[in-house]
Each structure stands twice: as C-alpha cells, then as structure tokens.
Amino acid sequence: MAKAIASAIAAMAVIAGSVPGSAMAQANVARQEQTVRQAYHISAGALAPALRHLASVAEVPLTFTADQTDGKTTAGINGQYTAQEAFALLLRGTGLQSVRLENGGYVLRPQAVAPENAAASPASALPDVQVSASADKEKAWGPVYGYVAKRSASATKTDTLLVETPQSISVVTSDQIQAQASKSIRDVIGYTPGVGAQTNGYRDTDNLILRGFQIDNSSIRRDGLRSPSNTFTGTQEPYGLERVDILRGAASLLYGATEPGGLINLVTKRPSAETWHEAGLEVGSYNRVEATADLSGSLNEEGSLSYRLTLLNRKSDSFIDFVPNDRLYIAPALNWKIADSTQLTLLTHYQESKLNRQWGLPPEGSLLPNKNGVLPRGLSIGEPLDNRKDIHKSATLLLEHQFNEQNKINLSLRRNQVDLDWNYAGRDSLQDDQRTLTRYFARRMEKVTAWTFDANLQSQIRTGSIDHQLTLGVDGSSSDAQRTRRYALIAPLDLFKPVYGAKPYGDDGKDGYRENTRALGLYLQDQIKIDQRWVLLLGARHDSVKIDQSDYFEPAWNMDKTTSTTGRAGLVYLAENGLAPFISFSQSFQPIGGTDRLGARFKPTKGEQYEFGVRYQPAGSNTLLSAAMYQLTQSNVQVPDPADPDNYSIQTGEIRARGLELEAKSDLTRNLQLIAAYTYTDAKTTKAGPTQPDVVGQRQANTPTHQFSAWADYQFADLGVPKLKLGMGMRYVGKALASNAPYEVPAFHVFDAGVSYDVDKWRFKLNVKNLTDKSYIVECGNGYCNYGDPRQVTLSAQYRW
C-alpha cells in the first residue's frame, strides 16, 4: 500500500507539471465581479448569519470581524438586487457599510458619517479596520447557513454544484440537524427521500435502507474515507458533523466496495479563522442531561493557524429499561495554511458510548395478538447487569496543495480504532405459553483497527468552449478486526411478570474470528462542461480487495481475493431558467466471502442503476426542487443451493428496485422555510433459486412502498417577534413486509415540533419528537419487532459569543 501511495503521488505530480495553464481562473474571477440582479429572501434576525447567507447566495467573499456584528440584528431583505444593493439594505441601521474590493469581494467597515463641523475638519477619513475573519461563499465541505445546500463533494470528490451533479444527492445541514434536535444518524435522515429505517431496529448501529437495499457501516463514509466499524461497534455523533450527504444509488466509482442503494458521507466540523463560540445545556425525557460546546477561531494574528474544538457529554436513560444512552465526544481539530497554495488540516475525535442493544420483542404481544395481553414499549428482555461500552478513536490528516491555477492535489489519511466490550442477556425463543422467553448470556469483545487513504489530482483544462475537470485518484484501506464471544446459561424471563436479577451460570461454548481486509482502487473521472450549458460526467474504476479470515481460537486462514471494474456516466443540461434535467448510469460492487459447494469462490454482488431526474434552482434564490426516477438492480445474490440448501448457496438471485423520489427545500418567504420529501419504492426479488419459487415477486423486507415527510419553520417577524421561530414536522411511513416472516408492519405517522427564542446571545429551544406519543412498530425481522420511539421532550439553552 505504501508503494502504491508513493507511486500515485509521484505520477500525479508529474501530470500536474505537464498540464498547460488556461484562462479559466480569470473567467471565474470575472463571473464573481459581475453585478447582476438576483432574488434574495433573508429573514430578520442576527446580523452575522444573515451576512453569511447573502454572501453564499451572491457567491462573493465577505470579510468581517465578530466584534463588528456582535449584538447587531437586521430587518432582512426580500427582492431582486445586485450584491452591492443587497448588502446596503441588509446593513441598514447597523452603522456598518460594505466596501467592494478589487478582487470582487466585500469587506465591512464603519459607516462614514460627516461631522457637523465637516468644513473645519478635513481630516474626517476613517481608519482602516483590521480584518480577522472571513465568510466566503459556500464550500462543499463547509457550513451551510440554513437548510438549502447548493454544493457537495460527495458525488464527485470535487466542489460541485448540486444542479451539475447527474445523480440524486440530498444534504442535511448542521442548521437542520439542530433545528430538528436530531440525536442519531437515523434522526438526521428522517426527512430525506429514499431512506428508510434500519432492518433490525437497533439503536446502537447506523445501518439503514437506501432505495430498498440495506446499507451498514461499509457504505458510511466520514469525510470521504471508509469507516472501519461494523454493525456491532456503535453509532456516529451528529453534533460533531457540519453536514450529512446522502448519495442514492450505485456509487462505487469513487468509493469502491459499497451496497447498491448508495452511501452516506458524514462531513466533520472543521477549523475556521472566524471566531465562533457556542456552549449549551440540554435536559429532557428519560433523565437526559447533555452539555455541549463548539469553539473555533484563529490562533495567530495572520490567521494562518486556526482551530476547532467540539465537545459533548451526555448522561441519559432511554425508554427501554436498563438501556442507557450515555456518550462522551471530544473532537479537537487544527488547520495550518502553510502557504497561499498549501494547507494542512488535522481532525481528531474520541467517542465513548454506553448504549445497550434494544433486542426487540416477540410479535405476539407487540404486532400480533397474545392471549396474555399487550407487551409494553419499555419492556427489556435483558438484565440490569447488561453493560456495553464502545470507544471510537480517529486521527485524520487532510493535505491540499495547489500546483498552479489549474492543478491541485488532495491527500487524506486516517487511522481509526474501535473497541467494544459488552456483556448481555440475549433473546432465544418464545415458548408455547406466549409469555416465557428463553435466553442466553454472552460476553462479547471486538476490536477494529484501520488505515484508510485517498490521494487524487484535480486538473482544470479548457479547450475552446469546453471545460474539463479531471480527477485521477487512488484510494485504499487496511483493516484488522477480531471478535470473541463466550456463552453462558441464564434463566428464562416471564414477559408479563418479569423478575430481573438472574445471574449467568455454566459454560455454553465460545466462538470468534479474525479478519484482515486490504483494498486498493484506482479511479479516473472527467467532468466536462460544454458552452456552460451541458455537463457530461464520465468515469471508470478498478478495485482489488483481499480478505483473510480465520477462527480466533483455532487459526486456519482462508483467503478471498476479488477484483472489479465499475463505471459511471451522466449528462446534465443547465437551462437559463434554473431547470437542470439529468440522466445517468452507475455501477457498484460488494465482495462476498466463502465458497460454493464445489469450492469456487463467490463473485461480488453487482449493482447497476439507470436514473433520470430534474432539479430546479432559480438564479439567486434559496430554493432547490428535485425529482428522480430510477431502476436499480443487484445481481449475483446468494440463494440456497438446490443440491444442499441447508449448507451451501449459489449466486443466481436478483433484486430490482424501481422508484420515484421528490424533494423540496426552500425559503418560501423571508420568514417561512420548508422541507418536503416523497418516496415511492417498488423493490422486490426478480430471480431466486430453484428451491424458492414463491420468493420471486416478493417485496424487500422493511421497505415501504410510500413514504412522505414535511417540515416547516416560521419566524414571527411580521408579527413583531423576529426572534421567535416555530417548527412543525410530520413523517409518514407506509406498510412494509416483515423480514423472514409472513406478516406486514402497519403504516404509521408521527409529528415533531420545535420552538426557539433568541435573547441577546442566548437561544432557548424546546423540541418534541412524536408529539402525540403514538405507539407504533417501526420494523419486524427474524421473529422480533421493535417499537418506535415514544414522545421525547428536550429543553436546551445555547450561549453564543
């Protein structure tokens, strides 16, 4: 791997030196300097975020200090203006003015006021203001002010406008995460199309469903790099994220092995030279107490060294007995601008969680009738002695070097380690009396250590009216995982009259494994813009994955090696009125370990997607409307071998998903923001094995046909209370087929709400999840069902300075 990295970097440097210069950079500057009129809809409120919002919409650099805007508010603007006019209107009554610089950017300075004795005082010029912070236009890996993101790097690994991306992608911003008080990745994606609840209902893992296909941590990236954790090693903390990008559909071109449904890229909060301090305290249901802090700023006068420190400490129970929800999160980060052309970023985090698994309850008594009655939502099948702790530690280096105006190289390197120590009483089977549950006891220990890297060269080339954005890269990972489990016996539990305190006894066996995975991929992508109207994306990738596995207690290594070539092609048309229709084809692969009955290694599963969609984003607006239709097929799916169905499999299965997704994010007025999404998914088995003729045509488990969600925020500026904001949301999930069971999970809908009020530097918030305290089943699988979360109330206070 080290040789591969060194060779790739050397090759990229040679290529970068050989690419000729062009006038593209000058053209970009010229576009920034244009003073065309655009539509601005900026609500009344604090001045600093309003200025950042304006700069983001106008796509111009804006520089100001925190002292200049501290404590100042604006009445907002609503209409068609040039950037200079918009700044002037937004700054009315603040004592500040915007000054346009030669490079097309703006700087804030005190407003010039002529003194009464101006004639006698010619020396009335104001002194220069020393600038110590900046608010540049939106970047794909940076903050988004509000709910409407316009750029992302998750689909292309380049800073690309969403309307120029020929594949469906949604962005959940940090502002949306905070407004909806999302406490898990499952909460974060609750108002996003194409995404469903995980297939096992567990809250200690981030595995979800995208377009009818389960994704787990193998399809979750952080800052574009693979996560080494698995379905047992915990969840990610949303408070540490700047944004969450959901890329739907086959996406192996830039990321290698992934499930066909797509992937989720978590973007970590990064250092900023702009001074920003936030501290908060939250209390809520189930004895929840949570303290947070988010601090950033410059460490020197030049602004070349900046930091970010994100902290969270939570102590909480949950609605399930004996299931705590405690977490400690510490994330220091540094950015060093070594030179104008080079910067280095260090991201680290330590996360310690205590969240016992929610095992679910038998369907008899939760979903289906039980002669003994109804099982309560908070019933635990475990014991008070259950104890689980997982620890995540990571350190990431991000290096960016600009060779010249057209060529730059990006290097990312991460070391990640996850440790799990877990004692638990697990479920076994429900007896014929429908109340006695047999159980087992286990001591489980897991450790995953991984190195991941990505190195790519990005080159801009202009030939006539055609612009090329070339990305040549190599990425890979090396992970070592081990698991041990030791079993014991434990007394059964009467679900309707539970008596806890049972102790494990005896020795009921042990198991464990070791697994070493090495992956290396080479990719090439070309984003071609023709006449500023057509965007063509072409790309290809080749991967090699090697997996060595062995029993932990009796080492005997087996090796699986997989190679795969995948690609993607897409076309977007950029109309003058803001419409951007697109069409695309993409592929994915996922290795499968093991052999068939004849000893042949299994092939990787393959995913192929055809997608047609359209986005609408009027120039200068804060609105993005999206619609997409797709067909996504997974082949080489394992099914029972007809010659020995109990012990072997063959790869003749196929699953196909077809669907429609609609999404709207918009500032409808200066005081009203809306998020809405609709999903239609027809995912079913299209090919099965000879022993499973009835499976053909069966729907994918826990994948509802229809889903709908909507969230609206209203700021009461027109009623004279601009610092009061009310949010309301509704999530509807249609009926779905249970996993490995002949019954359906009923449809359900829940309501959420949030209200906030700003007082000087304080923000007070009240959020309620499941406002009506509706009791519902979120999913059923493998003979057990999981209730959805009951009503949860949180009250928080944040102080910002």
Automatic annotation (TrEMBL):
Gene3D superfamilies: 3.55.50.30, TonB-dependent receptor, beta-barrel domain, TonB-dependent receptor, plug domain. It holds the Pfam family STN. It is found in: Cell outer membrane. Residues 1-25 form the signal peptide. Residues 60-111 form the Secretin/TonB short N-terminal domain. Keywords: Cell outer membrane, Ion transport, Iron, Iron transport, Membrane, Receptor, Signal, TonB box, Transmembrane, Transmembrane beta strand, Transport. It is a multi-pass membrane protein. CDD domains: ligand_gated_channel. It comes from the Bacteria. PROSITE patterns: TONB_DEPENDENT_REC_3. PANTHER family: FERRICHROME IRON RECEPTOR-RELATED, FERRICHROME OUTER MEMBRANE TRANSPORTER_PHAGE RECEPTOR. Belongs to the TonB-dependent receptor family. This is TonB-dependent siderophore receptor. It comes from Undibacterium hunanense.
